[in-house]
Write a structure and sequence with these properties.
The complex is a heterodimer. By secondary structure, chain A is an alpha+beta fold. Helices cover 36% and strands 37% of the residues of chain A. Chain A has 3 helices and 4 strands. In chain A, a hairpin with a 2-residue loop joins strand 2 and strand 3. The radius of gyration of chain A is 13 Å and the shape is globular. By secondary structure, chain B is of the alpha/beta class. Chain B has 2 domains: 173 residues, Alpha-Beta Barrel (Anaerobic Ribonucleotide-triphosphate Reductase Large Chain); 231 residues, Anaerobic Ribonucleotide-triphosphate Reductase Large Chain (Alpha-Beta Barrel), CATH 3.20.70. Chain B contains 15 helices and 13 strands. In chain B, strand 9, helix 14 and strand 10 form a beta-alpha-beta unit. In chain B, helix 6 runs parallel beside helix 7. The chains are: A alpha+beta, B alpha/beta. Chains A and B meet through strand 1, strand 2, strand 3, helix 2 and strand 4 of A and helix 1, helix 3 and helix 9 of B.
Chain lengths: 92, 456
């Protein structure tokens, strides 16, 4: 399956998840899992998103770019990475 | 199945963001033997065309993969068949070879890679007229090109050492230093002398596309000294068992990233995957230093007693951890100890803890050799050849790759510093013994194959 990991790191504030979820919904992308934690006072969130329903007019690069810009608006860092990098580092 | 854990994601991203984990290079090997011609101009045109068509998408593909996985792919590079072989039919003089050098440099610029390696000759058993012409052309070739890298393999465990080539390389290095004297003799930073050179090394300046390779191949070099150092910070005072396990585990993780990127690049470019080189390659950036790992093990600075043992341990555990992480490990794979490219090594050289003699001892257990070492500009060609011969002997007897990348910085002496800029860094000039070896170097012929070379 074509999955990406979206991570959000920064100062906790109202509506971070809502804004990201709205963006993903608008682009027809399904969230498979969400987890979050506070590390050293910083908000850390991770989403696993299914990219197999990516629309033809969208691309991975465009989605990643939009999310990065969205993060700047909110004041957090949003990264979008394909799942395989984590898989290969942490799973045999 | 969802099994990715937020802490693992965080760990990976911390390695990338804070500990300088990156893929150091995707290197596309391109075979040029089919470009051979009797006419220099036709040869240069064919070489240029082949490189610019085959490597057209290399840089863009590397960028794309880097963005998708969220890991920097710092360099995109090309290695080609040793130019002495490609040019043997057409290049009769050093000047002819310079034309080929310029064609290679133009092609590299056209496709946007930051280095192209393979302006090379393999002369372990002696030089052909083409080999010698290429070697004699190196000073001009390196001073009149920008991204071209050159290497000459003068010895091997299977062949011994061609001392005629060693003598010539001492002169070539001095001449290259003179020709680039206005930039702290930077030409020499792009010139490596090898023993037991490997065909699939993706790292510069010593990369070339060996004749045993397929027409095109993707080799990837990973890095990550900062990741190893950070892992060791968590286990201060622990036993050697724990130390070794920690290095192995970290090397495994780093190499897995290299394997992922390598297979992805190979698939997208439609080129066979060759090897992952799992070297710990430092950069001058703070936190990206192999010397710092040695310090984290318990030395106050690199060069202290115990340095060779610490480096041996590091090199071996990196190999052990990395071997299982990739379907094909190759290249040099171990720990690099370039002086100018590692701020911990620079500091140790500056304080006097690291002498060239200690560095030589360290090269008997590291993955390459005397690397990026700035020496006084008045060091004679014979003494440079002497240092090379020593380094080659270590490689020959021990069946390992050794290399010498020495920079006699013209106009500078001990106490001065050379500034190369960028990834090449800066280096204090370190002293070289004033004792003379010119009668030894003046002897002609070869040091024959050692007894350790007879394994058939």
């Amino acid at each position: 399956m074509n999955r990406v990991i979206i991570t959000v790191v920064g100062k906790d504030t109202v509506g971070i998840i809502a804004k990201i979820c709205t963006y993903l919904a608008e682009h027809g992308l399904n969230i498979l899992d969400i987890s979050q934690t506070i590390v050293q006072g910083f908000f850390n969130m991770m989403m696993i998103v299914d990219m197999s329903s990516l629309k033809e007019e969208d691309s991975f690069q465009a989605i990643a770019g939009d999310l990065e810009a969205l993060g700047k608006d909110i004041g957090v860092v949003i990264k979008c990475q394909r799942e395989e990098i984590f898989d290969s580092m942490h799973r045999l | 199945m969802i099994h990715i854990d937020i802490n693992e994601v965080r760990e990976t991203n911390l390695m990338i963001e804070k500990e300088n984990l990156d893929v150091r290079t995707i290197t596309l090997g391109i075979g040029l033997t089919d470009c051979a011609d009797e006419d220099v101009k036709r040869l240069c045109d064919k070489v240029y065309d082949k490189i610019t068509t085959r490597a057209e998408k290399l840089v863009a593909t590397g960028e794309e993969i880097g963005k998708e996985f969220g890991i920097p792919i710092v360099n995109k590079r090309i290695s080609v068949t040793p130019a002495a072989l490609v040019g043997a039919g057409a290049c009769k003089t050093p000047d002819d070879f310079v034309l080929l050098a310029k064609a290679l440099d133009r092609a590299a610029h056209e496709v946007g890679v930051n280095f192209l390696g393979g302006y090379s000759a393999l002369v372990e058993m002696g030089m052909t007229p083409a080999d010698e012409a290429l070697i004699r052309s190196i000073p001009v070739a390196l001073s009149e090109t920008e991204v071209l890298c050159s290497s000459v393999c003068v010895g091997s465990t299977k062949a011994g050492i061609d001392m005629d080539a060693v003598r010539l390389m001492g002169e070539v290095i001095r001449e290259t230093a003179y020709k680039t004297a206005d930039k702290d003799s930077i030409g020499c930073a792009k010139l490596v002398v090898f023993c037991n050179a490997v065909d699939d090394n993706p790292f510069m300046a010593g990369a070339f596309h060996g004749v045993t390779q397929p027409d095109l191949v993707i080799n990837v070099g990973v890095s990550g000294p900062g990741v190893v150092k950070t892992a060791l910070e968590q286990i201060r005072g622990a036993s050697f068992d724990v130390l070794c396990e920690t290095i192995k585990k970290t090397a495994f993780q780093v190499t897995r990233v290299g394997q992922l990127v390598a297979s992805e690049a190979a698939a997208r470019l439609g080129v066979p995957f060759g090897i992952v080189d799992l070297s710990l390659a430092p950069t001058p950036a703070v936190g990206d230093s192999v010397a710092d790992i040695l310090c984290e093990m318990g030395l106050t600075e690199a060069g202290a007693p115990g340095t060779t043992a610490a480096l041996a341990l590091l090199n071996d555990q990196v190999k052990k951890g990395g071997l299982m992480a990739s379907s094909s490990v190759g290249g040099l794979s171990g720990a690099f100890i370039p002086v100018s490219e590692d701020q911990g090594m620079i500091a140790a050289a500056r304080s006097g803890a690291l002498s060239i003699e200690k560095l030589e001892a360290m090269t008997s257990v590291c993955s390459v050799g005397l690397d990026m070492i700035a020496i006084p500009g008045d060091t004679s060609a014979a003494r440079i050849s002497g240092i090379i011969a020593d380094e080659m002997a270590i490689g020959m007897i021990n069946g390992k790759t050794t290399a010498a990348r020495l920079i006699p910085v013209i106009g500078k002496g001990v106490g001065d510093e050379a500034e190369f800029g960028g990834l090449l860094g800066s280096a204090p000039i370190i002293p070289v013994s004033k004792a003379d070896c010119s009668d030894f170097i003046a002897r002609t012929g070869r040091i024959p194959r050692p007894v350790t070379g007879f394994r058939n």
